[in-house]
Design goal:
With 291 residues, the chain is α+β, with helices and mostly antiparallel strands. The chain has three helices and nine strands, in the order αααβββββββββ. The chain folds into two domains: 120 residues; 121 residues, Sandwich (Immunoglobulin-like), CATH 2.60.40. The N and C termini lie far apart (178 Å).
Amino acid sequence: MKKGLIIGVIAVLAILAIWSITERSKWKTKAENVEKEVIAAMETKDSLSGELKNLYSEYEYLKINNDTLKHQMSTQQTRIEKMMKEIKGLRGANSEELKKYKSEVETLKKIIKHFVVQLDSLNTQNQSLTSENRKIKTDFNRAVRNNEQLSQKNDSLKGTIDKAAELRAENIAVEGLNRSDKPTKKADKLYKIQVCFDLPENKFTKAGQRTVYIRIAQPNGEVVAKETDLFTFEGKPIGFSSKRSVDYKNEKLQNCIYWTNDQNEDIQSGNFAVDLFMDGKLIGTKIFEIK
């Protein structure tokens, strides 16, 4: 009986050993499969991370080179950054999650292809517009040059007309007079200065009333003028010795203007300078001597 018990125990142990070996083999196979799944998942994660990095770089390149689609591509880049963080945070071999990310990566690839097509179309349009703009710019520059040439011609013509329209005093004669209106060249006898001149015929200038001013400067450069007698020359008020209104009718006109020493100014000996002004311009100068 003991022998039968021993045989029974041995049989049970043998069965247990066979079961243990079988289970160990199953667990080993299962562990190997899990290990393979983990390795495959890690490889998939690395692959997806690499693809996302490449996609991010492609979006960045396209964004830099095109302002029109910049906002849309920035949105996709934000989406990629989020996915990269999520994939990096995955633990274990979650095949369903990885499938979802694979699908999203494929979607991003399709989107970027769509962007490339759009950019190609925009580049084609831009090239066409650039060519058209270049032509417009060339035409514009040609028009500007033509306008500049016309402007120069007009300026030249205007300058010629303005010059032709200028009136200059001719035959200027200056003479000193005493109190009896007799000619004198002596300083102590001088009471008046007579300035006579001609305005020549000129069909280009405007006819009408004009005011002619004279400035008489003594040898020391001091102008004989009252403080209140002023007119404008080159944008500034300056003193005048005397003035006269004339009616110019585009024909030769002879005139005389007188300055009287009614302020009893001291008259110097030497060379006097007389300047004539009209229409805000200097129209003549004459030097005469008082002894």
